[in-house]
Structures are given as structure tokens and as C-alpha cells.
Specification:
alpha+beta; Glutaredoxin; 4-stranded mixed sheet; two-stranded antiparallel sheet; 6 strands
């Protein structure tokens, strides 16, 4: 069985879908996660949550909590803003093309929902996505050499990623822009929102898949292939410092 999912990173329903997709992937189910920006009208700095906004988001999270299976959890605290996810979608599209999409998907959801990071800020994403992007197989110099996956104007770096973002958006539009996440499964009509999560639940039950598989740190850097000079490490540090440890 293969699955296609359309989702956004600031969507609590999509957060739970991502966790379930990880469990299904660990059980051998192929899942093609496609990121879309659900609300491009948000300001570039995101939207700070007012008291009414926090109440609405809490109500939405409570609705998602009603679908939790034993062992599943949702974030314990509300974020301070709803980010414009253009940059996050762009970074994910680059990671998808570089073969590290699953890691970046997990990293983006954790950064926003667990840490409260502004995943709409390109500068925030450049540091957080560097590890997996450097582990990827992109041939574009900004990705391959520096781990950059998002431009300063929140778009992707490569033309192929830009086309990917546009294609995903067009596909979601052709479906009628249903509520996220949207799930497409072999031989079944599209499911959106709560129904998509219930279908994922059925597939988890059918396979008897563990809900929280152990996965490596998505932010990890690649193992160094060249040992840098001690003097350079003392000045710059960062991920290269571990080459001198032990």
C-alpha cells in the first residue's frame, strides 16, 4: 500500500498525521508527504496569537486529542504565533529532492510544535535544516556545501524545488483545497481532516504497527570526511568540533 499526504506544518491535525506516518513507514508502508502552504495570506512575520486565537487553537488541539490512541501525545503548550509556512514548505521541498524529506518533516514539526520556533523565518531554518540538508544528495552548491535550503525571501534555492512546491499546490487545488491533512490511498477516495487521521488509525491497527518507533535525530550532521585543522576548530567550532573529541 502507498499513501500520498498533503499537509501544512502549522496544522495540529497534520502534526498527528506526521507521527502516524512515521509509525507506518517503520512498518514498511510507503508514504509520499507533500507540503502545501494552507494560508499564504498570513503576514511574513506570522500572526501573534491573541487571547481569542489561543482559545481557538486550544479548542482545535482538544478536537485532535479526541483522536489520540493510547501512547500518542500532543504538544503540552501552545505556540505564541501562527507562522507563515512558505519558508518551511520551501525547505521541505529542497529536502524532499535531496532524499532527506522525512527527517526535515519531523524536524519542522518538532521545531514549531515542541519548541515554539518561528519556522517561517528563513534564518531560523537555515541553522536547523543544515544537518539533514548536508546529509542529502543535492548537487546544488548552496545545499551540498553549506546546507542552505531556503532563500532570504523564503523561497526554495533550486528551480526543481520551486516546481515541486508549485506542483503540490496545484494538486491540492485540483482536489478542491479540502481541509488538511489530505490522504490519498490506493483505490480509495480522498480523505481530509479528521477522516484522514481515522484512516491512518485503521492502517496502524491492521499492521499492528508500534506508534512511536525509535528514529535517529533528524538534525544530525553527516560524519566528517576531512579532519579540519585544530586551529580552525578552535576558532569556528560547530559540528566539526566532534572530530577532535575522544
Amino acid at each position: 500500500m502507498s499513501l500520498v499526504i498533503y499537509a501544512d506544518f502549522n496544522c495540529p491535525w497534520s502534526y498527528l498525521a506526521s507521527r502516524r506516518i512515521d509509525a507506518l513507514a517503520a512498518a514498511g508502508v510507503e508514504a509520499d508527504w507533500r507540503a502545501v502552504e494552507a494560508d499564504p495570506r498570513l503576514p511574513v512575520t506570522g500572526q501573534r496569537l491573541t487571547a481569542d486565537g489561543r482559545a481557538a487553537l486550544q479548542q482545535e488541539l482538544s478536537a485532535v486529542a479526541g483522536l489520540l490512541l493510547p501512547g500518542e501525545e500532543l504538544p503540552s503548550r501552545l505556540p505564541d504565533l501562527i507562522p507563515k509556512t512558505e519558508a518551511a514548505v520551501s525547505g521541505y521541498a529542497e529536502a524532499y529532492g535531496a532524499g532527506v524529506g522525512a527527517d526535515v518533516r519531523r524536524l519542522l514539526f518538532a521545531a514549531y510544535w515542541l519548541e515554539g520556533a518561528d519556522i517561517g523565518d528563513p534564518n531560523v531554518l537555515r541553522t536547523r535544516l543544515a544537518g539533514p540538508i548536508l546529509r542529502g544528495h543535492s548537487t546544488a552548491d548552496p545545499l551540498r556545501e553549506a546546507g542552505f535550503a531556503v532563500s532570504v525571501n523564503r523561497g526554495p534555492i533550486t528551480t526543481s524545488a520551486w516546481r515541486r512546491v508549485r506542483a503540490w499546490r496545484d494538486e491540492w487545488n485540483r482536489l478542491g483545497r479540502p481541509a488538511l491533512p489530505v490522504l490519498l490511498a490506493d483505490g480509495e477516495p480522498p480523505a481530509s481532516g479528521e477522516e484522514s487521521l481515522r484512516r491512518l488509525e485503521k492502517e496502524l491497527a491492521r499492521l499492528g504497527a508500534p506508534l512511536n518507533p525509535e528514529l535517529p535525530d533528524p538534525a544530525r550532521y553527516p560524519a566528517p570526511t576531512v579532519r579540519p585543522a585544530r586551529e580552525w576548530v578552535s576558532r569556528v567550532g560547530g559540528p566539526w568540533a566532534y572530530a577532535w573529541m575522544g
